[in-house]
UniProtKB/TrEMBL annotation:
Gene Ontology MF term list: transaminase activity
Stretches assigned to the Aminotransferase class V domain: 16-351
Keyword match Ligase: no
Protein name: Aminotransferase class V
Cross-referenced PANTHER family: BLR3095 PROTEIN, CYSTEINE DESULFURASE
One of the Pfam families matching this protein, by short name: Aminotran_5
Organism: Salegentibacter mishustinae
Keywords: Aminotransferase, Pyridoxal phosphate, Transferase
Amino acid sequence: MENLRKGFPVLEQYTYLNTAASGLLPESVWEFRQNHDLDFLLGGSVFKEKQADILTETRELVGEFFNCVPSQVALVPNFSYGFNTLLEGLDKPQKALLLKNDYPSLNWAMESRNFEISYAEIDQNLEKNIAEAFENQQPDFFAFSIVQYINGIKIDLDFIKKLKQKYPETLFFADGTQFCGTEEFNFEESGLDVLICSTYKWLNAGYGNAFMLFKKEVEGKIAPKALGFGSLQGKYKAHQGNFIEKFEPGHQDTLNYGSLAEALKLMKKIGIGEISSTIESLSVTAKSEFKKMNLLEESVIKRKTHSSIFNIKGGEKLFQYLKSKNIIISQRGEGIRVSFHYFNTEKELDFLIKELKKFGV
């Protein structure tokens, strides 16, 4: 377990239970970033000639990690940029289904446009609520977060796959920002048409990088309008005006996309199986302990499976108390959000529980 913590200096100072807000920067990524800018400092345009190789490697690593052909991977600066570009490529008006109180960057982007929107409730019956909304509304597309940012409720991806089979003409757009990097995921075999993920959280890739995965079939249904002369063609953008290029106008940031490549190399070295089992073990134990202490909402308690994000009951005083103990968490919704990644330990969970009890929770 201690080997999983190497390369994260933050863990020497804090009990860091806040990946749902911001992942940590691994030393290997930091070293890449320093070398990248040193090469640019010393090489100028000579370094620029290597940019296509950096972007190609990143695209291939994303495709390998999530089982998506590299030519269907777009590199974008953040979820919001990618999602808004996607929405601008859709004909309007269309009927859309969202989850009520889903992540603001997702719902706000939808609500600011001329779509006919309906909502499904996020509770212990999430999948049932979605199925009923599909029957009643017959949406043209469904946009949702795989894992909810406030309380960690995770949608059943097998349910999504079956729902897509039942409604093949509906487009399924997913935000994977609170999901990607926590368990193995096969995009090609999923029910998703598009997945978008900012990678500064669970992939520990730093800020300014994200990716989009596309099924080939969506190209005739989405018509993005962005173009730019400076966009490098590269190995997977063989002709001007191709689909992926419209999500990557202009020069690409090789510092940040190269950081994503280095972060994926680290996770690949550890192994997604090891990462997933560690996270799952912590999640199961944490849920059991928080349930005993009556800290969880009923909708989370009644779900069979859950992510490693929890919203526990508590206000400003508890939040400040935990901070005083160098436990890094976030205030979200009506409680305090804690989240566990592969570099966290049961010892840290025990410390959190001990301090909660000391406070009188």
